[in-house]
Design brief:
4-stranded antiparallel sheet
Length: 128
């Protein structure tokens, strides 16, 4: 049974930082590109950032789907730990959302329909 489990969300003040983790089990993690999406109530889930599986480029490519997070969010992965990370800094209230990680057995995509597996989400709230 495949599972993706996010952790690391919480309440943070504007300008603060958080690191989210996405730990997988039951899949061959190294073959999957990992995307982070976010969703606020009443809006569609949107792609934020993705790290590729390295199959196409021979390195882990980072794809940004939200211009507003460039320079503030970074993504990384540790295949030995079956875990991907989303480091978020200089957070603003506009970053408040439920954050989801997802896995696709292909290159990165900004479309949530492309992904094979999803985590349950972790809430990030940026507020003073």
């Amino acid at each position: 049974q495949v599972q993706l489990v996010e952790s690391g969300g919480g309440l943070v003040q504007p300008g603060g930082s958080l690191r989210l983790s996405c730990t997988s089990s039951g899949l061959n993690f190294r073959h999957y590109s990992i995307g982070w999406f976010r969703q606020v109530p009443g809006k569609e889930r949107e792609g934020v950032i993705c790290i590729s599986n390295g199959n196409r480029e021979s390195y882990f490519d980072t794809i940004y789907y939200k211009d507003s997070v460039k320079g503030r969010f970074t993504i990384s992965r540790d295949n030995a730990e079956n875990t991907a990370y989303l480091q978020m800094s200089s957070l603003t209230p506009e970053d408040t959302a439920a954050y989801y990680c997802a896995a696709v057995n292909d290159h990165c995509s900004g479309l949530h329909s492309a992904y094979d597996f999803w985590g349950q989400g972790t809430q990030v709230t940026v507020s003073s």
